[in-house]
Amino acid sequence: MRLFHWFHRKRSGEIAKKRLKVLLVSDRADCSSELINSIKTDIVQVLSKYMDVDKEHLEVSIVQRPDEKTGENHPAVVARVPFKDINKVIC
């Protein structure tokens, strides 16, 4: 566990790797990287009302999934949203 991870400066290789992933996902889904980044921002805004979202490790992708009835492929948004604390909501 890194106690001072917020002081850690990201290496350019790590940044380039993340950018390449976004580019590949957007290319496969035939949508812009701006759209995927907008989806990420919206997901974080909504879920932040209920939990402390780990924004650094959030992953959003658009994949092709076959329809169960027709077998045709349709785009689907897949999100992996790690969170730090879920006790943000007052019940």
From TrEMBL:
UniProt cross-references to Pfam families, sorted A to Z: MinE
Keyword Cell division: yes
SUPFAM superfamilies referenced in this protein's UniProt entry, alphabetically: Cell division protein MinE topological specificity domain
Superkingdom to which the source organism belongs: Bacteria
Keywords: Cell cycle, Cell division
TM ranges: none
Keyword check for Lipid biosynthesis: no
Gene3D superfamilies given in the database record: Cell division topological specificity factor MinE
Gene Ontology BP annotations: cell division; regulation of division septum assembly
Record-linked NCBIfam families: minE
Entry's family note: Belongs to the MinE family.
Stated role: Prevents the cell division inhibition by proteins MinC and MinD at internal division sites while permitting inhibition at polar sites. This ensures cell division at the proper site by restricting the formation of a division septum at the midpoint of the long axis of the cell.
Name this protein carries in UniProt: Cell division topological specificity factor
